[in-house]
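Page 42, continued from yesterday. The earlier attempt failed because a stray header line got pasted into the input along with the sequence. Redoing it now with the clean sequence only.
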Amino acid sequence: MAHDSLAALRIPFVRAFALGEATAYLGAQMVSVAVGWDLYERTRDPFALGLVGLAELAPAVGLLFVAGHVADRLPRRNVGMAGHALLAVAVGGLAVIAAAGASVALVYPVLALVGAVRAFAQPATTTLLAQLLPPPEYQNAAAWLVLVGELAAIAGPAVGGLLIALTGGATAAYAVGAAANLAFVAALATLPAVPPAPAEERPSAGDVFAGVRFIWRTPAFFGAIALDLFAVLFGGAVALMPVYARDILAVGPTGLGLLRAAPSVGAGAAALLVARLPPWRRPGRVLLAVVAGFGLATVGFGLSRDLYLSLACLCLVGAFDSVSMVIRATIEQALTPDRLRGRVAAVNFLFVGMSNELGAFESGMAAALFGPVAAVVGGGVGTLLIVAAFPFVFPALVRYAPGSVK
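This time it went through. Structure tokens are written below.
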């Protein structure tokens, strides 16, 4: 019997979740473009862009372990709904600040609230469908989630940049971003609220850190997420795109939207290609190769002075990152028991998701000290050096084969 590639989308709550998540992600991309453009337009200081990452990262570091525990102890649907409702309020606050022309200093506490709320929402929403669907249907659903997410990531920056260009400010982009979060809340309301799985042991304070212990004892998975952490830390060119758009490539807010969308174009194309490939026998080795490609493409973007060459390099950045994301997700799903999914997802989000914010801070600081070009090129070179060292630091990642060693 032929495989039904639309099997997951025939389930009503999967369709609702995919559409809602894509809408929320589209809004998040618009907000990201608006924050970067607004701050740099008002301050002309690349370090102000780096502080965006720090503001979102700082509260999340302290809350993610508790957030993962919450995702494993409460209905994940309800946690996700509460989180995205609060995100809508926070993004609405950014709209008010922009409309009033209030001090830039007020932006950072609101971004800290965004980081804190996202720390709770992310582990709950990313593990929700795995709890509701059997493995064959989940794999099909995950493929569609990646594809619609990349479409949203392509459209979000472009629409955000266009709104800024048309309105002359960030307020409209923020307002749409707030509405997008409310749309996801409505979509989550259509999903069943599944009670959490019973704990195998008596509850204790150490349960909060069960995800950390699991990852520490699973070197293949630990190596995969650590590699991503360092790659994004050193290769965070996205944070400096407002500088490139305004001062180096001179393409304005519309060009900034195109630059922000380019990685998602590459990621979407790579996702389609990966969906047609058989499973890798040694995914750890492929991961090292694509992260090296990520570093090389970052160097190319840093050196480019042509918009089209910059877009091509960013497409490659997104393509390589998409393949690495698929590999990490595959390793995580293969090795993690359901009772720990929320806590493992929280730690994974800290390493992978929030590494973007930490990388943004590092890039902004490096750009302020050495200039944006040196910051981006040096970050790409740093990524290549990390890749060269990882086979010696995490040999289990190189040896990992599905169904064999951890």
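Notes: Residues 135-167 form the longest helix (33 residues).
Reminder to self: strip header lines before submitting.
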